[in-house]
Amino acid sequence: MAMRAFYIGAAVAASSLANIQSAALAFTTTPEGIKKAGAGVPIAAPGDLSLFDPNEAGKLQGTNELRDRVSSGSAFVVAPPRTIVDAPPAGAEVGEAQHFLEHLDANGELPLNFAKPQSPATAAVLGRAKLIDDDAPGDIEHVVMKLPDGFHYVEGQSLSVIPPGADAKTGRKHKPRLYSIASTRYGDLLDGNTVSLCVRRAEYHDPVTGVVDPAKKGVCSNFLCDLSPGDEVTVAGPVGKTMLLPKDPTTDVIMIATGTGIAPFRGFLHRLFMENTLARHMFGGNAWLVLGVPVSGGLLYKEEFDCMMRNAPPGQLRVDYAISREMTNSVDGGKLYVQHVIAQNGKELFDRLDAGAHVYFCGLKGMMPPILDTLEVVAREQGAVWSDKLAELKKNGQWHVEVY
Questions:
Q1: Could you say which of 179, 186, 301, 321 is catalytic?
Q2: Is 196 a catalytic residue?
Q3: Cα 355 to Cα 386: distance, rounded to the nearest angstrom
Q4: Which residues, listed in sequence order, are joined to residue 7 by a DSSP beta bridge?
Q5: 151, 189, 232, 234, 364 from 115: Cα distances, Å
Q6: Active-site annotation holder among 180, 183, 196, 324
Q7: Identified catalytic residue from 65, 102, 155, 402
Q8: Does the annotation count 404 as an active-site position?
Q9: CA diameter of the chain
């Protein structure tokens, strides 16, 4: 299902209020409308939309476009520079926009807990692929699964995987493991029924022999990294409210990731720069990704990000890599980590935050202490107190952290 949308660069005139009032009047002449209006007695307060809700009767899929116009009256102003209109003005470029899941986070609502761990759902594996080169340490796999009908999510959310079998120590079923979702709400197949995960195989290497000890391997990660098409996976969710994209499409987005912490940001960037949705066309901010990995063969989704860089408007997308074993930092000449990229771009980072940018962190929890130490130094260089600045960012909803 697709919705035809028109993208223009200038403001357009608001819809005629008389047409809206006529539609509301027509609605009240039906038996249902008369009954709701108190058998013809005008008990509804003007402007409360109880007689005619544009989102429902107007089939606007929860966009609030018409509701805002009605509620604001003569004070309504069409926000530049881009506006969605009912008909294209002369010379406008017309394109098809995928739109059938845009209602999922409309009006502040979110899809949450379609399936709970006590009553999980079953997903089917569609495919799995190794993401890193053989010379990169460890194993990281991209897993695509088909979800049951009705199981939807939005970018930045997570789902739980419950591995099969029982815990060897307790004899009980394994506890759910939470994974950040690495795809957009439409999924890698763009059908709205799939989900992708970015999973590192958890292994324990004996410090003396260097040999992997299978008795200490990660139960869930190894289960996921060994899946084959057709296998079934027990899942629950979705959950998560803290790693969502800003509501204002003109807001800058700064993403700091290490390793598989790239997962939610892959979803972000696909939504903002790859998929043919209104979210992509309306995005007017800048996106900045900083990804840390040990070697270049371990760069995750680099081909996708390279494609996005080619297709994005000039200057709208920036990608910086911190390849610790191959790059050196300018502070002490040692290995380059994400905190060094932050330090080297401290003023720009704070300028963006002062302008309202949202900053996101995702990866192993060990990434945060050196990052926070670096931000404290940068704040001092900018004449600010970091504790005060952090409190301000949290209060404004600009600070987002998901570590594990």
A1: 179
A2: no
A3: 17
A4: 93
A5: 8, 22, 15, 10, 26
A6: 180
A7: 402
A8: yes
A9: 86
Residue 257, SS3 per DSSP = strand
Catalytic: 180? yes
Is 301 noted as a catalytic residue in this protein? no
Q: Which two tokens stand for residue 191?
A: 């059908």
Helix (H) or strand (E) holding 2: strand 2-7
DSSP assignments along 190-226, one per residue: TSSSEEEEEEEPP--B-TTT--B-GGGS-HHHHHHHT
- 3-state SS class at 371: helix
pTM, whole model, 2 decimals? Answer: 0.77
Query: Which residue intervals of 240-385 are DSSP H helices?
Result: 263-273, 278-282, 302-311, 338-344, 346-354, 368-381
Closest CA to 273 of 309, 315, 246: 309
Residues 165, 153: contact at Cβ < 8 Å? no
**Tokens at 282, concatenated:** 């309306």
Residue written as token pair 């800048």: 286
Q: Which is nearest to 235 in space by CA: 111, 143, 115?
A: 115
Per-residue pLDDT of the chain (404 residues; tens, 9 = 90+): 444 444 433 333 334 444 444 444 444 445 565 455 555 555 555 555 555 555 555 444 444 555 565 566 556 554 444 555 667 777 767 666 788 999 999 888 999 999 999 999 999 999 999 999 999 999 999 999 999 999 999 999 999 999 999 988 899 999 999 999 999 999 999 999 999 999 999 988 777 777 777 778 899 999 999 999 999 999 999 999 999 999 999 999 999 999 999 999 999 999 999 998 989 989 999 999 999 999 999 999 999 999 999 989 999 999 999 999 999 998 889 999 999 999 999 999 999 999 999 999 999 999 999 999 999 999 999 999 999 999 999 999 999 999 99
Cβ atoms of residues 4 and 96 within 8 Å: yes
For this structure, is 326 an active site residue?
Answer: no
Q: Distances from the Cα of 393 to the Cαs of 130, 229, 285, 390, in angstroms?
A: 37, 43, 18, 5
